[in-house]
Amino acid sequence: MADAAATTSKAWKLASAVLAVLAAGVGVFGYVEYSAVGSLTAQLAAANDEAQQATDAETKLRSQLSQAQDRTNTQAQKLVAAEQQVSAEQQQLTAARRQMSAEQQQLQSTRNQLAGEARQELPIRLTFHDAMFGAGKVAVLQNLSDSDLEVTLEVQNAASGAHVRRRLVVNAHGLLRFGQAQGWAFAPGQVVTLNNEKYRPMVQTVS
């Protein structure tokens, strides 16, 4: 009976020891697991912080990029506006130059007209007669002054577009005939101009 009790006591002691070892192992395992979970939690928190920092940095960069694009667009708009203004000013300058040129031409024409009006009439009588020989008419230039006159005779034929230009000298109080024999047959409708720089031009239509 005493042997059975001793055996039972040993079995309980052995079971208690085993349970103690198991309990110790469970405790160690739990501690290890707790430590691992804590480490993972810390790593996760750190990762979340880094992710948040990355998100903040991305947001900041996007904001900076948007601001830079806005500045670029504003500068581009200013540049376009400046180019349009320069173009408008150049057009105004061109228009002003054209107007000035037109005014200068008009002024010069007025001066020439006034200068021509200030000159005396050309002392030449111009008449036209039928040619005695050949076709057409003959121009007769009569010098009414006391000096020889050099004139430039120009004739325009509006119908054919033909044109002639001759320098002629008419003696004082003399006559000069110019017709087919001299290289031009006058016909009705032709415009004849006599020029001398000291006198107003004489313009006459052949009739």
Summarize, please:
This protein has 207 residues and is of the alpha+beta class.
Give the SSE map.
Layout: H1 2-118, E1 120-121, E2 124-130, E3 137-143, E4 149-156, E5 163-170, E6 175-178, E7 191-195, E8 199-200, E9 202-205
Parallel strand pairs: 1-8
Antiparallel strand pairs: 2-3, 3-6, 4-5, 4-7, 7-9
How would you explain this protein's 3D organization?
This protein is of the alpha+beta class. The protein has two domains: 1-118; 120-205, Sandwich (Immunoglobulin-like). The chain is built from one helix and nine strands, in the order αβββββββββ. The protein has one helix at residues 2-118, and strands at residues 120-121, 124-130, 137-143, 149-156, 163-170, 175-178, 191-195, 199-200, 202-205. The strands form three sheets. The chain has a four-stranded antiparallel β-sheet, with no helix packed on it. A three-stranded antiparallel β-sheet has the order 2-3-6, with no helix packed on it. It has a two-stranded parallel ribbon with strand order 1-8. A hairpin with a 6-residue loop joins strand 2 (124-130) and strand 3 (137-143). It is rod-shaped and about 190 Å long. It starts with a helix and ends with a strand.
Tally of structural domains:
2
Taken in chain order, the helices and strands follow as: HEEEEEEEEE
**Total number of helical segments?**
1
Secondary structural class: alpha+beta
Provide the β-strand percentage band.
15-25%
Radius of gyration from CA coordinates: 60 Å
